[in-house]
Amino acid sequence: MDTVKLTMTNMATMAIPKEVESLPHSVVAHGWIPFMVVTALSLVFSVVYVVWYRSDRPAHRAWGTSVIAVLGLFISLVTSILVPVDVFLISYMKTSDGSWKPWAESSEVRDSLKDSILYAYYACYAIILFFAFLLIPANFFYHGLDPGLEEDEVEPTVGQRLCYSLKYSLLTVFLFSLLVVAGIFIPFEGTPPSNSTEWEKFEWFFEELESNQGKDLLLFLLNTLNMIGLGLLIFYTGYGVSSLPCGLIRPTRGVRMIRSSVERQIEEIERNIRDITARNAGGEVPRFEQSQLERLEQQARLLQREHRDLDQRAKSAVSRCQILFRPFQMIIGVIFSVFGFLIFLSLLLTNLDKALHSGGLFTGYTLQNSSLPNPVDLLLVLAQQVFPLDYILYTVLILFLLSCSMSGIGNLGIRFCCLALYKIRAWKTPPRGLLMAVLSMMYIILAQNVIMFSIVPDYTMFGNQHYKQTVGNVTTIVRCSSRNFPEEKDDCVPSRISVLLFSFHYKAWIFGAMYYWLTWVLLLAILGGSLYSVYNLRTPQAASGEEEDLLDSDDEGDDQPSNNPFD
Fold first, then answer.
1. Which of 227, 247, 275, 271 is nearest to 334 (CA)?
2. Alpha helix (H) residue ranges in 63-214
């Protein structure tokens, strides 16, 4: 037994690279402990988001859908919270005077650390591709045979659902195959020799794929998903940046105000009923007035049921807390407005900088000599000196953009070509609508990773690194940034996420150019959404979801108790 234990110990030791073993514990602790904490919070957020929005109707119970939605949203969030770890680890390799720390003096150690971060990105993005092109579409089409509202409709069997799901999931697999073929045969690194045969040209593409280990193919697929995500981000987040703070500031017609309005309507209808009854006392009621009387009595019954519902909600703990927290809600709305303005300003300054100092269209508008200051970027770079302040600020920024996206999706719903497909509301979203909302959020989170390079470009690329610059006999300490590129390649270590995205732009400049132009469209969307939201501040809004919930209650019937614990 001792020999077996010794052999297993030796094998485990050989499996761990010596470069990774040489990392000091402080590096591992400072880099990965905050990551694990935020990862746990991301999992909690994903669970709460799905549980909050999924439908509580018995016909819509789908635990498999909930699990898929939670995992898909969670993996997407991990790609965002990996960025501060990435930035910290590449910044922690150097001291404030620009020299390497003792543990990072070996290039093997640095390369091993950088590769470990890169492989984490590869794993997350590969899982996202699996969810986006197979798992979520398969589950979406699985619920495509859900029975309607008619009682005589038969519940489809599991086999029928699986056949239906398999048939339509093949379309998304076919689409993925087309993207893979395009990623293989689009010549990012030149073209095959002109004097070669057709078969030799065909072999040349696969040799190129093998030489870069499929990285260009993965980056092509990733950038394609980012383009879809940017379109959704423009539509939802562009509106949500203004609708979220303005919705918190805007006066709300609370439950008590709506209940008073319903009471006045009931009194008016009852007065009309008494007038009709008094006019025809002791005689036969004319047919016209009889139909009018029946219509008024039906309206009175509906309003009385609505009044009972509102009276129950007015007594709930949530309604009372909303009154108490209303001043704080307005303060948070003002703070979010400041956040939105800073993001708009940072995006505008970065894009103006690219317009003035970038390498142009065929370099993907890569910034080569930045000159305009970026307030959010400067704040995060300075915050990195106080661990883990930059991690907290970056997470807050991600959560704010995520909240804006949720606000946009909640207000606009899931749409296709301006046609409303699903309304995303708490406890009312069916399984297919929930899957579409989560898939949209996954694409938006991927696009946020790209947009963050425009909001905080220097922080996401270099962090707080410095290097020694010698001019003549004078040596100065310079911070790594887009305006101070070093002459030596290894003086500044870029983050792995920047290498992952921007290195591909030199081969396929079209993606960098599209990101640049779509950022201008996002700025216009934020500006237009802000004007619309400020215009709507004039009138109070109904309490969130009140009108839709009351309409839904007419279809559900009175015999179905709500599972919502907040009612």
1. 247
2. 63-91, 107-130, 136-142, 158-185, 198-211
